[in-house]
Design a protein that fits this description.
The complex is a heterodimer of chains A (365) and B (376).
Chain A lengths: L17 E12 L6 E12 L3 E5 L6 H8 L7 E11 L5 E3 L5 H7 L4 E4 L13 H12 L5 H14 L16 H12 L6 E5 L7 H18 L2 E6 L2 H7 L2 E6 L2 E7 H6 L4 H7 L62 E2 L6 H6 L15
Parallel strand pairs in A: 3-8, 3-9, 6-7, 7-8
Antiparallel strand pairs in A: 1-2, 1-4, 4-5, 9-10, 10-11
Chain B lengths: L20 E11 L8 E12 L4 E5 L6 H8 L7 E6 L2 E2 L5 H10 E4 L13 H13 L4 H14 L18 H13 L5 E5 L7 H18 L2 E6 L2 H7 L2 E6 L2 E7 H6 L4 H9 L38 H5 L5 E4 L2 E3 L16 H4 L3 H7 L16
Parallel strand pairs in B: 3-8, 3-9, 6-7, 7-8
Antiparallel strand pairs in B: 1-2, 1-4, 4-5, 9-10, 10-12, 11-12
Helix pairs in contact in B: 3-4, 3-5
Classes of the chains: A alpha/beta (365), B alpha/beta (376).
């Protein structure tokens, strides 16, 4: 039944046990002659029990990556290449992009559950929340009876800190934060191994955001699922994620442990993004954000997509496309990667340019 | 309603100490629609506010706390239920279109969404020309061109010729917001009301807009009301901060001391909830509860159902804004000298750590059950 794959591809050296491996995933928008390449050869690995943060500005492809990896991409989005390998608890592996419709339907929610961006509005307004949770359980486990599934729904609500008498509430009777919790409870209904959360707290206030984030961290400790947490708020990610991948213009530009990204950013965009959030404590300093604006994905420059806004760009940046390599800073974690030509003198030299060393700002220890 | 002894901020030395725009006892109730419904939403209650030239006041609060309602009341886009709006100390409540247009010359507003606030079928030239003609008279030819160039240069859209004939869809979010700011500057206003001007923009360009507004404050001596839910950006940009909760102002003071030593329990919770990777220990873990219904707001202090320090007095009487330091006020009974006043502590201690929350996560109803802590 399952498409069992042999170990393929030049996967990067990783510790732990990968649960979701995205390899060279490409996505286009548009069916005509000239589609927009929204994702270009993106590779990303999620390990078991890990919280992976996916950060970037709006339009950089964060949500597209998550939806493409779960085959939820609405038209005109089209996956044009790559594979998404899911490893089950028993070690069997299957490519989600090659599953048949029936297999996919069985895999969704059970293996990978999503909490959508507009979770506040994702609930059906005409059904009670208990029934909505129970419906999902019964669709996947037909042997479970109605009463039993409602019991399970009650357990799930309790799990996310909502009183069980809310089972018979309609969504409009719940506040935004509670609706968001119901969505999380629903995602956890079938004990998924991967939970993808697309901006789950963006519409909420900071106090509620903190409550939800704590809840997720707490549930992960107890249930042991992996999380892909998508947001533009890097400072929030640094708190909750184990590892952060930063995206820019449809590519991952830096992938490293959360504290490494924060203390020792290696990509100029990652560094700029960190300096775009004014601090709440510590000395007040003048901040500039990043000059210019994100590029148009339909008309990307050759070479590095960030070159026009980059303070460290040099002549090779306009011609050579950077790829993810280990940073050229001695003593860095060998597992972290960065896509910047300053860190990749070999590629620069191979293209016939003079390599330029890493600026001290991007080599902090 | 008497005017409380408000004082301009600490570093201010404006030309005159009469506030450019002042609100006294501002109140707004929205009727709840429905058959035989006499309920009202108590959106804004008894808000006093002063905006001085060359200074930025930030209004911070969560969604639904009444921030935007205040901006709309100050812009006189809708009538207030009670209270007064004063310009240079004179009552400025407008009646009729002509008076409103004269008022907009003094007080301009920047909206949250630059994708919606610019008409998509008109060029930047048309949008700005209209504003210039309305507020500066019928300029033509070179004069008009110079005015447009001047406006675009003031918002750092240079060279102006490159932007003036563009349609909004050809501009990025940050550039659109700059055009919206240029349009308000055509009126040469004394007061700018900026309602979440950066929350719809990409994170990397938000600071550019804040720096631009600060530059306008310094060069043109405009008074700015900056409405935001992000207390960190309020600290970065504003001189004074007013924190709102459920339609009432709970704390005011200079930006630095309000964010560094918050006095009101709600402000403490807000500051301790904002993500700050530098200080992971100082997080208010385990806080619960959410903003109350404004149709039937809690009696007394509106924060008391969520406050870990609340006592009987808090649910009985509305706390006034009490002095808690140099030019700082907090609406909390904990700062009064009444014998039945609550004893305040730190929300960090009061809310306990995460494991305590996990143990207590049971059938607690987050919205209604007040936190009961033994404070003795």
């Amino acid at each position: 039944m399952d498409v069992v794959l042999e170990e393929t591809g030049p996967g990067r050296a990783v510790v732990g046990d990968p649960v979701l491996e995205i390899r060279n995933l490409s996505v286009d928008y548009g069916y005509d002659e000239d589609p927009v390449h929204v994702l270009r050869q993106v590779s990303l690995t999620l390990h078991r029990g890990e919280v992976l943060g996916l950060a970037g500005e709006s339009g950089c492809g964060k949500s597209t990556l998550a939806y493409a990896a779960t085959r939820l991409l609405p038209p005109p989005g089209l996956v044009t290449g790559g594979e998404v390998v899911f490893t089950d608890r028993d070690g069997s592996r299957r490519d989600l992009l090659a599953l048949s419709d029936t297999e996919l339907r069985a895999s969704r929610w059970q293996d990978t559950a999503i909490v959508f961006q507009g979770a506040m509005n994702s609930l059906n307004p005409v059904f009670r929340v208990g029934r909505q949770i129970a419906d999902g359980i019964r669709a996947h486990r037909p042997e479970i009876g109605r009463a039993e599934s409602l019991e399970k729904a009650a357990e799930l609500l309790e799990l996310v800190g909502i009183s069980t008498d809310r089972l018979r509430s309609y969504p409009h009777q719940l506040s935004g934060g509670m609706r968001q919790r119901v969505m999380i409870a629903m995602a956890l209904a079938l004990d998924p191994q991967v939970l993808i959360m697309d901006e789950p707290t963006t519409a909420l206030d900071v106090v509620m955001q903190r409550q939800i984030v704590e809840q997720i961290a707490d549930l992960r400790e107890r249930l042991g699922f992996s999380v892909v947490f998508i947001t533009h708020d890097v400072s929030l990610l640094i708190e909750i994620a184990d590892r952060i991948a930063i995206m820019y213009a449809g590519e991952i530009v830096e992938d490293a442990a959360a504290q490494d990204v924060y203390r020792r950013p290696r990509h100029p965009y990652a560094s700029g993004l960190l300096h775009s959030f004014p601090p709440l404590r510590g000395p007040k300093r003048e901040l500039g954000g990043i000059p210019g604006s994100p590029p148009d994905l339909a008309a990307l420059p050759s070479g590095c997509a960030f070159q026009a806004r980059c303070p460290y760009a040099f002549d090779a940046c306009a011609a050579v496309r950077p790829e993810l390599v280990t940073p050229a800073v001695a003593g860095d974690d060998p597992r972290r990667t960065v896509a910047c030509l300053r860190h990749d003198p070999d590629r620069v030299a191979a293209a016939g340019f003079e390599p330029v060393p890493v600026p001290p700002e991007l080599a902090a220890r | 309603m008497s005017n409380p002894p408000h004082v301009p901020g600490p570093r201010s030395a404006p030309a005159s100490d009469v506030p450019a725009l002042q609100a006294v006892g501002l109140r707004k109730h929205f009727p709840v629609r429905g058959v035989r419904s006499h309920d009202v939403v108590h959106a804004v209650e008894d808000v006093d506010l002063e905006l001085h030239r060359g200074r930025v006041v930030a209004l911070v609060g969560e969604s639904g706390s009444g921030k935007s309602t205040i901006a709309r009341l100050l812009a006189q886009l809708m009538p207030a239920t009670a209270g007064q709006v004063l310009v240079d100390g004179q009552d400025a409540t407008v009646h009729g279109r002509r008076a409103f247009r004269a008022y907009t010359r003094r007080v301009q507003m920047i909206f949250q969404d630059p994708f919606a606030s610019l008409n998509p079928i008109h060029t930047v030239r048309y949008t700005l020309t209209r504003a210039v003609r309305i507020h500066q008279g019928r300029l033509r030819g070179e004069q008009l061109e110079a005015a447009l160039t001047g406006l675009l240069e003031r918002v750092q859209l240079v060279p102006a010729a490159q932007y003036v004939d563009k349609f909004p869809h050809e501009l990025s979010g940050g550039q659109r917001q700059r055009v919206a700011i240029a349009r308000t500057l055509a009126a040469d206003p004394d007061v700018l009301l900026a309602d979440e001007p950066i929350s719809m923009l990409d994170v990397s360009i938000r600071l550019g807009i804040l720096n631009l507004l600060r530059d306008l404050r310094d060069r043109l001596q405009i008074a700015i009301l900056y409405i935001t839910h992000d207390i960190a950006s309020a600290r970065y940009f504003a001189d004074r901060v007013m924190v709102m909760y459920a339609g009432r102002v709970v704390e005011t003071g200079d930006a630095e001391s309000v964010t560094q030593e918050p006095a009101h329990p709600y402000t403490q919770l807000l500051v301790r909830s904002a993500p700050d990777p530098d200080d992971l220990a100082a997080r208010a873990h385990g806080a619960h509860g959410e903003a109350p219904s404004l149709v039937h707001p809690p009696s007394g202090c509106r924060f008391h159902p969520r406050c870990p320090f609340a006592v009987d007095l808090c649910s009985a009487e509305v706390p006034p804004l009490l002095e808690v330091g140099a030019e700082r006020q907090a609406a909390c009974w904990g700062y009064s000298d009444r014998p039945d006043a609550p004893v305040l502590g730190s929300v960090l201690d009061a809310y306990g750590d995460r494991s305590a929350l996990a143990a207590a996560t049971g059938p607690a109803r987050p919205s209604t059950v007040p936190v009961e802590e033994d404070l003795s």
